[in-house]
From TrEMBL:
Coiled coil: none annotated. This is Aspartate carbamoyltransferase. Residues 2-142 form the Aspartate/ornithine carbamoyltransferase carbamoyl-P binding domain. GO terms for biological process: 'de novo' pyrimidine nucleobase biosynthetic process; 'de novo' UMP biosynthetic process; amino acid metabolic process. It comes from Brevibacillus composti. Pathway: Pyrimidine metabolism; UMP biosynthesis via de novo pathway; (S)-dihydroorotate from bicarbonate: step 2/3. InterPro entries: Asp/Orn_carbamoyltranf_P-bd (IPR006132), Asp/Orn_carbamoylTrfase (IPR006130), Asp/Orn_carbamoylTrfase_sf (IPR036901), Asp_carbamoyltransf (IPR002082), Asp_carbamoyltransf_Asp/Orn-bd (IPR006131). Heterododecamer (2C3:3R2) of six catalytic PyrB chains organized as two trimers (C3), and six regulatory PyrI chains organized as three dimers (R2). GO terms for cellular component: cytosol. The lineage of its organism: Bacteria, Bacillati, Bacillota, Bacilli, Bacillales. Residues 148-294 form the Aspartate/ornithine carbamoyltransferase Asp/Orn-binding domain.
Amino acid sequence: MRHLIGIKDMSKEMIASLLERAEFWAQRPGVQSESLRGRFVANLFFEASTRTRFSFEVAQKRLGAHVLNFIPETSSTVKGETILDTVRTLEDMGVEAAVIRTKKDGLFEELADQVNVQLINAGDGTHEHPTQCLLDLLTMQQQFGKLEGLTVAIIGDLRHSRVLGSHLYGLPRMGAQLLLSGPSTMMPPAEVVPAGVKTVEIDEAVKTADVVMMLRVQLERHTNSLFISKDEYHQAHGLTLERVQLMKPDAVIMHPAPVNRGVEIHTDLVDCERSLIHKQVTNGVAARMAVLEALLKGEEMQWERSLATAQ
């Protein structure tokens, strides 16, 4: 890979390879590596973030990279500098990879052919969030030993979710059945939903799924305030204590976080035995380590694997 822009253009084999390497790191928590020793990586977050930003930084440091954390408020972007010029400036200084989160849909397609630095999408607008998709797939694979044949329900504010934007392609490509459910005003446009992805009522989604993934209502992206109260939303479209009883015995709960407790999910369910939410956070480091290695060390890793196979 030259860049990680989105899941849409990734093959099943490429996803599987990243998951294999992510599992390697997931089984070695806290292990330090010199894999990216001497390499410079910059984190450019133009939107607020806790899990994605810090898990990328932990991943980079565990791989031995030099990490530069960009702060928009103290940069030349406040003087009118474009993101393209910012990235080019970092490239001129020897930075080899840039992890970027932005409100702008399609920014990475604009940058990809204009810079040599390798780009990693840490979330662009409502478009995609590929590393979140990868860590979710890793978490599901660990739980069930497979992805093929699973039924995954993604429920909530689908229209504004870049997590869904990646899962629309990732889950079907890996052989999983994807169900969508949410308020009619928060459903994705029909033209972006691939064939085979089903839209169902929430109770059917909860009853049917092996994985029930709840999404946050992204009020910051809504042009109008929530059309109903938070409590009304919770009862109609959230994972309530009553609704969780409909789940299959071995089904699990996931959420990309941050969680609005008492809105899309009851607060008691965030930390319950069925919940894999904290496991997702843990797996974020391993998945991002795999991505960083694939981009910055890809050819060398392929050569090492070929040599090991030959021996």
